[in-house]
Amino acid sequence: LLKQLSVNLILATFVAAGISSFVANYLKKKYLLTPKMILVPAMLCMMPGITAYKAMISFVQLGYYGYNPQVFTQMMDFSFNAIFVTAALVFGISLPTSFWYRTKPIV
């Protein structure tokens, strides 16, 4: 679905984490659970484990075989992808909670 709609992975992760957080905040009142009990299992499957692993393998290849521009570019691509997906998860989870519990206005 992401490839058909040409949606960026980081944006899709942010939106999915935000929707999951809103749903968890809704379900916490209905079932008397904390949002973390609902969010942790939902977010574990969205963690960028394979891209982080590939970045680590590329980093090890750079140390073992020496500098190669193609491997360095691949390592940086995987590293930034993993970092930005993780940041999108963090901001997607925390943004609805900050709207929910804010007591004084922004302005």
- Please tell me the overall pLDDT: 87
Query: What share of residues is helical?
Result: over 70%
Number of helices: 5
Number of strands: 0
Report how far apart the termini are. Answer: 39 Å
Beta fraction of the residues?
Answer: under 5%
Helix/strand order, N-terminal first: HHHHH
Q: What's the story with the biggest beta sheet? A: none
C-alpha geometry: elongated
Cα gyration radius (Å): 18 Å
Low-confidence region ranges: none
Structural class: mainly alpha
List its salient traits.
0% strand; mainly alpha; 5 helices
Account of the protein in words:
It is elongated, with a radius of gyration of 18 Å. With 107 residues, the chain is an all-alpha fold. The chain contains 5 helices and no strands. The chain has helices at 2-5, 9-31, 35-44, 49-65, 69-101. Helix 2 (9-31) packs parallel to helix 5 (69-101).
In short:
The protein is mainly alpha-helical and 107 residues long.
SSE diagram, text form:
Elements: H1 2-5, H2 9-31, H3 35-44, H4 49-65, H5 69-101
